[in-house]
User: Which sequence fits this backbone?
């Protein structure tokens, strides 16, 4: 097997992953652009600001804004004015999002299992460990 550059492989896997997840999640009004990632973060940190979300998830501001707008239009999140900063809004999950959260997590867990089904548990642990190591190193740059 030809040895491919690591960045190319990670990029390819990411694109395929996003494409497949968008297909699985589109019946629920969650499309591409990592909307599920934004939704999960708002569910985990109700009251987070859009800027905090951008920093937390390492997306650019435009992607965050688009995803938040789409999640709001789909009825998954709501914005409330930040009492300490009028220019900012706090993001909260709606009842729809809270009720959908267990199903979303199950779908993501099942998809994650599908990604690694050819790996044994030791290989999966090693892969995760190595990817976390690469991710940690990149954060210092």
Assistant:
């Amino acid at each position: 097997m030809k040895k491919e550059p690591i960045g190319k492989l990670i990029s390819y896997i990411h694109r395929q992953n996003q494409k497949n997840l968008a297909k699985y999640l589109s019946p629920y009004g969650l499309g591409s652009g990592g909307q599920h990632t934004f939704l999960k973060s708002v569910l985990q940190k109700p009251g987070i600001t859009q800027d905090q979300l951008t920093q937390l998830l390492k997306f650019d501001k435009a992607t965050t804004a688009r995803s938040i707008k789409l999640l709001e239009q789909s009825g998954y999140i709501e914005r409330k004015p930040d009492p300490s900063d009028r220019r900012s809004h706090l993001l909260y999950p709606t009842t729809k999002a809270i009720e959908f959260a267990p199903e979303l997590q199950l779908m993501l867990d099942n998809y994650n299992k599908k990604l690694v089904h050819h790996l044994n548990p030791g290989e999966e642990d090693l892969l995760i460990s190595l990817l976390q190591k690469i991710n940690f190193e990149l954060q210092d740059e």
